[in-house]
Amino acid sequence: MSMHSILIVDDEPNYLVVLSELLKDEGFEVFTAADGPAGLKLVEDVDLDLVVTDMQMPGMNGLELLEKVKEKNRDLPVVVITAFAEVDKAVQAMQAGAFSYLAKPFSNDELIITLRKAAQHYSLLRENTRLRSEIKGKSGFAGMVGKNPRMLQVYQLIEKVAPTHASVLITGESGTGKELVAKAIHVNSPRESRPFIAVNCAALSGSLLESELFGHEKGAFTGAVAMRKGRFELADSGTIFLDEVGEIPLALQSKLLRILQEKTFERVGGGKTIEVDVRIISATNKDLREEVAAGRFREDLFYRLNVIPISLPPLRERMDDMRLLAEYFVQKYRRELRKPDLKISSDALKLLMKLPWEGNIRELENTIERAAILCSNDIIEADDVHPDTPYPEDASPLGAEFDLRLMFPENAGLNDVLYAIEKKMLTQALVDTDYVQARAAEKLGITKSLLQYKMKKYRIKKRR
């Protein structure tokens, strides 16, 4: 258990010495102050887990100190010590937000149990706040943005399964947000205050993955210089998220099955059986049924993991969410890049709607981040949007139809050729449509703003 930092505020020097010795023996890190103002200074300077204050002190009394501590950090627990006769003061302290009070005389055990409870309460609050802000910071339902009917079904499933212990298997292409779903399930479950541990099973080879998941004893293999706990132990009483679970080698699958069935395992190189209580959420972009049919994935393990399946739609099937998602990422990079005026033009949005998005939401986010960095005047235009997806092979039947060597000299550079073709096509389209820009752009298959940008680039006049 980690060492909790505790501040004791009391105007009796003897009492401070006695209490701080007692608490140091109990493994607390102890800070002391002889009056309220000195105590407040320490609340600002030290990352405390807990404050203990006497009620009766000259100058600033315990109640005033409590109120001032709460102004600085609402969550920091304060335990108030009162004399036996001051029941009304104790009530006032509780109303003002004290974690609890102790009336003198109290036993050491009573004190230590109360303080441990308070410190634990605070560390859970902190862990929660961290996870919550991480997830709520991503806005929407646990960081998932969108109102597409298939996404609404996903949200409903999350709400239904989160409170249970059931294993969940999340399927979907790469970049659809599988880890966000796993976190949302964890944060909305009774395990919310316990750890959420993610492991990417594709990133580690068999033996490394085994010691990563199950830990190893000292000397279990060359380089195992110390006992190391695996991810399952770290996730005890919480949730483990196994990403790319289809990549787990067959030899390890039986060990995983045993954890699901018996909640026990051994560390690599160890004989001691370890018990854990862990909820397993897994994710895959493979079709596990096919893997089972091919003999690469155990059927019994598949059924154990797939108690509740959640399938995430690819971005191209939820284009009605594009505006929301784009706005969400623009807002994110407005903050991160400190560009308070960052906007996205409607032409850029229209272009986003037309792209294939093979990398899904992750690709969309990368695309918008890149555009946000490269755009001028803090406005993302269609021209700033360069997605990651390579141009589909053989997307254009033109390649076979004309011989470049007949059109351009042997030593022509790429830029010159592109320049010449682009300028010629733009001018031709404008002439054909009688210089109506919207129609010329449509004919060329580009946005009007991109056409205008290119007209400027090639100094093509609006009308001859």
Give a structural overview.
The protein has 464 residues and is α/β, with parallel strands linked by helices. The chain is 46% helix and 12% strand. It has helices spanning 13-25, 36-45, 62-72, 87-95, 108-136, 149-161, 178-187, 206-214, 231-234, 250-262, 288-293, 299-305, 322-336, 346-354, 360-374, 404-407, 414-432, 437-444, 448-457, and strands spanning 5-9, 29-33, 50-54, 78-82, 100-103, 168-171, 196-200, 239-243, 264-266, 273-275, 279-284, 308-311, 343-344, 379-380. The protein has a five-stranded parallel sheet with strand order 2-1-3-4-5, with helices on both faces. A five-stranded parallel sheet has the order 7-8-11-6-12. A two-stranded antiparallel sheet has the order 9-10. Helix 5 (108-136) packs antiparallel against helix 7 (178-187) and helix 18 (437-444) crosses helix 19. The protein is extended.
Feature tags:
single chain; 464 residues; alpha/beta; Rossmann fold; Helicase, Ruva Protein, domain 3; 4 domains; five-stranded parallel sheet; 12% strand
The shape is: extended
Low-pLDDT ranges: 136-140
Strand content: 5-15%
Strand order of the largest sheet: 2-1-3-4-5
Question: How would you describe the oligomerization state of the chains in this entry?
Answer: single chain
Number of domains: 4
Per CATH, the architecture of the largest domain is 3-Layer(aba) Sandwich
Q: Could you say what the CATH topology of the largest domain is called?
A: Rossmann fold
The beta-strand count equals 14
Amount of helix: 40-55%
CATH class of the largest domain: Alpha Beta
**Total number of helices:** 19
Major sheet attributes: 5 strands, parallel
